[in-house]
Design goal:
Blueprint (H helix, E strand, L loop, with lengths): L7 E6 L5 H13 L4 E6 L8 H8 L13 H6 L9 E4 L2 H11 L5 E4 L12 H23 L8
Parallel strand pairs: 1-2, 1-3, 3-4
Helix pairs in contact: 1-5, 2-5
């Protein structure tokens, strides 16, 4: 049974370059602007991954303008973790960091174990397949939690 959308959600992963930007973009595309959505990484020393851009473009989600940011940069830019209703961690490292940073706040930290597609596959098509799998896992978790806004049966 789907639960109501949160007012605000933060997706996080290791570098804010692959999984969490995909989740941010997909959430915004599917569920509209009624929920404030951001993403961050434990670190931010990588740019948005080209394969993430490509597989999200296949489903109409634009990621090319995404700029990676870390938890620390997010706070410097004025996004206080306490202002989010929910944090969704997509990697073990980001779950640990989110729990550490939110221990003084009353908010939910969910963990969705999403495949890290980086480094998988020898050919471009094999890499794309891995990235699609990660994208589809994110999409499935969203639909399971909040329902399918497209009205499709799952």
């Amino acid at each position: 049974m789907a639960v109501p959308l949160p007012h605000s959600v933060l997706f996080c992963c290791d570098y804010n370059a692959v999984r969490s930007p995909m989740a941010e973009g997909i959430m915004k595309q599917l569920y509209g602007t009624g929920t404030y959505v951001q993403s961050a990484g434990v670190k931010s020393d990588l740019d948005i991954d080209g394969f993430s851009i490509a597989v999200c473009k296949e489903i109409g989600v634009e990621l090319a303008r995404h700029r990676a940011r870390s938890f620390d940069e997010m706070e410097q830019w004025g996004d206080d973790l306490g202002s989010f209703d929910m944090v969704v961690a997509l990697s073990p490292a980001s779950q640990r960091r989110a729990l550490e940073l939110t221990r003084v706040f009353h908010l939910d930290v969910l963990y969705w174990p999403i495949l890290d597609p980086t480094g998988l596959g020898e050919t471009r098509e094999a890499k794309m397949t891995s990235y699609r799998q990660s994208r589809d896992q994110i999409l499935a978790h969203m639909i399971e939690r909040w329902g399918d806004p497209r009205g499709e049966e799952t």
